[in-house]
TrEMBL record:
Pfam families: Methyltransf_12 (PF08242)
Positions of the Methyltransferase type domain: 1-87
Top-level taxon in the UniProt lineage: Eukaryota
Organism annotation: Eutreptiella gymnastica
Protein name: Methyltransferase type 12 domain-containing protein
Length: 111
């Protein structure tokens, strides 16, 4: 599960390297979901709290700066992992972490 999958760049790379892997993305932008779907990628808009499925890998890249409650976000991600699962994260700009509410129009909240 790639959270904040955008147009599916990471999902596409996973499918190229491991075609038998069932890669799914989570995204809130309808335009990006449509773009990913045009490339045959599975990207959906769902609330993290409603996802019951467990995953071997949960990833996110450059998403943390858009999250209003990082601890709640991490708890939600950890709930999605299988017991032996792996959380992969990347932030391109550590300075983004100093003020997570700096751009309220791009800040997402979790219950």
């Amino acid at each position: 599960m790639d959270v904040g999958a955008g147009n599916g760049e990471l999902l596409k790379a996973v499918q190229l390297l491991a075609p038998n892997v069932n890669a799914t993305g989570l995204e809130t932008s309808p335009m990006k979901i449509k773009g990913a779907g045009n490339h045959g990628l599975r990207v959906v808009d769902r609330d993290l709290a409603t996802i019951e499925e467990k995953f071997d890998v949960v990833s996110f890249m450059n998403v943390l700066s858009h999250v209003s409650c990082p601890i709640g976000f991490f708890k939600a991600l950890m709930r999605l992992l299988k017991p032996t699962g792996c959380l992969f994260m990347c932030t391109g700009n550590a300075a983004d972490l100093t003020d997570p509410g700096q751009n309220p129009s791009q800040t997402y909240s979790l219950p």
